[in-house]
Amino acid sequence: MSMLNNSCKKSGNVPEVHYKTLKVLEKKTNLPVAGATVKIYKAIDIGYGVFREGPILGTLTTDKDGKFKFDSELGVNYAIATHNKYWAGSSGGSDMFGSYPFGNIYLAPVGYTKIHLKKINTYLSGLLLTVKVSEDPSPPFDPGSWLSFNQPADTTILMMSYGNTNYIINWYFIDGLGNTVATETGGQIPGYYVNRFDTVSVEINY
């Protein structure tokens, strides 16, 4: 009987795990992102105000409510979330400017802009046609996304965008050094909206 009592006491001393629960949510809509992969870390100070990811403390998957949980005693302060329908996102971490808040992770859904390019005018040879896709309005310090081409006669390109976002397209010509050539006329596709996971088609006749 004494042995049984001792056994019970030992099993009762197993430390209780205190979990911290966070969510992965869709940016702007706050919809839960189920099935996202979340890697959790403890950021390490390597000196001179430089921080890097420490060893992975765990790889988790969000549930139907976008939730993931981990042992609060692990000291997790940085996490990266990925999903095949979303741009990767993170929360927490540190850099030379200090530590960032560690909490829910917000992912922007992927969207696409399909651009049909057709040459209908004549331009100086050697110049590159540049197509720039930018958010509208454009966030500070965001250069947008651009591609340059050797004046294609007729082609279609697909550019990844953020879903649930307004965009504008500017097209113009650059020389071999990357300088904009103001003497050649460019143009603009006015504002259009890309829904989450959707593809918007536009035409540029240049």
Q: Estimate the helix proportion, in percent.
A: under 10%
**CATH class (first level) name of the largest domain:** Mainly Beta
| Low-pLDDT segments, ≥5 res | 1-10
Mean pLDDT: 90
Total DSSP E strands: 18
What is the makeup of the main sheet? 4 strands, antiparallel
Descriptors:
2 domains, four-stranded antiparallel beta sheet, 206 residues, 18 strands, mainly beta, single chain, Immunoglobulin-like
Walk me through this protein's architecture:
It is a single chain. The chain starts with a helix and ends with a strand. By secondary structure, it is mainly beta. It has a 4-stranded antiparallel beta sheet with strand order 5-2-7-8, with no helix packed on it. A 4-stranded antiparallel beta sheet has the order 14-13-16-17, with no helix packed on it. It has 1 helix and 18 strands. It has one helix spanning 2-12; strands at residues 19-26, 37-41, 44-47, 50-52, 56-61, 67-71, 78-83, 86-92, 94-95, 98-99, 105-107, 110-118, 128-135, 145-149, 154-162, 165-174, 187-194, 199-205. 19% of the residues are buried.
